[in-house]
Amino acid sequence: MQEEKKRRAVARWLLAGVLMIVVQVLLGGVTRLTGSGLSITEWKPIMGALPPMTEADWMAAFDKYKQIAQFKYLNAHFELDDFKFIFFWEWFHRLWARMLGLVFAIGFIYFLARGYFKKDMIIPLIILFILGAAQGLVGWIMVASGLNETDLYVNHIKLAMHFIAALILLCFTLWFALKLLVPEGQIVYNTRFRNFTNIIIIVLGVQLVYGAFMAGLKAAMSAPTWPDINSMYLPDTLWAESWINHPINIHFVHRQLAYLLFTLIMFWFGAATSAAIKAKSGYMKQLRWWPFVLVWVQVILGIVTVISAPQISFGKFGTFEIMAELHQLFAMFLLMALIVARYMVRTAKQ
Questions:
Q1: Which of 126, 195, 197, 343 is 20 to 30 Å from 43 at the Cα level?
Q2: What pLDDT was estimated at residue 276?
Q3: Do residues 214 and 325 share a domain?
Q4: What is the DSSP string of 170-215?
Q5: Based on the domain organization, do 112 and 246 belong to the same domain?
Q6: Are residues 189 and 130 both part of a single domain?
Q7: Residue ranges making up the domain that contains 25
Q8: Other Cβ atoms within 10 Å of 55 Cβ, number
Q9: What is the distance between the alpha carbons of residues 162 and 48, in angstroms, rounded to a whole number?
Q10: Model pTM?
Q11: Per residue in 55-111, pLDDT tens?
């Protein structure tokens, strides 16, 4: 019983990390939607925890921002108060990442000192640390891609790398917690259902990459219509332009993947129902509803986000920005629901 309490305590610590990662990704979305990501032009993991403290410090930070293309060609009208607004969101995004690292460090030291960690937890903990450190590095590589005299925003491919790295960290932390929480008796042994779930997660992963491309290239504004794409169902750019660099083509792929994912999850729901009944798994009977409901919500949010794109007002957080944040949040919920489902399903026993 004592060992069980220890495992649950570690699991709660990990789930707190999951929640903080979700908030971190959402803050990243706010940073992007407010155009704040390039406001801090230096990477100071330790000293950067404090914002400018004096007027002279603020002017020095603002002067550095004035050297990049985003200020020169997009925000040349900014005064110091405007700069302080965008600086805050990027600073808070980085501060939350530091807090996440602090929560990990404090929890790790506490549980290590109390003897809560068992041998089977050591390797996952090392991987968790590496993933967290890598995420910070990838974030700076992304920011650095926009700190020049030609680009108005960060590179959309590096933005996608930063986003996917955060989701890998999220999923690994969640999986680790599940290993400590889910009773063996609730596991479903069904190879075909396991493989089907794997396929859906892969499709969702590709969809999330294209979602990041959409965000990085501001592609929603290029086709704010539905179900057509600017009065077309097959864009005339489809075979003439890149599928990873052209906004309309990215928009098209993102929509088709959404339709495919929706269809797959409708079939998955039926397969999950059958698997839960055969395995007599109460967990799976409840869990099967989450992807089913979430994919409906996510599709609706995606449509509303796209058609609200004409309401974008740079520098303000309005309808489009709220919908975009909700769309991102429910994408994470859907991913986590499928990861939990995948954890619950194993290859059939021989």
A1: 126
A2: 82
A3: yes
A4: HHHHHHHHHHHHS-GGG-EE-HHHHHHHHHHHHHHHHHHHHHHHHH
A5: no
A6: no
A7: 1-181
A8: 9
A9: 20
A10: 0.94
A11: 999 999 999 999 999 999 999 999 999 999 999 999 999 999 999 999 999 999 999
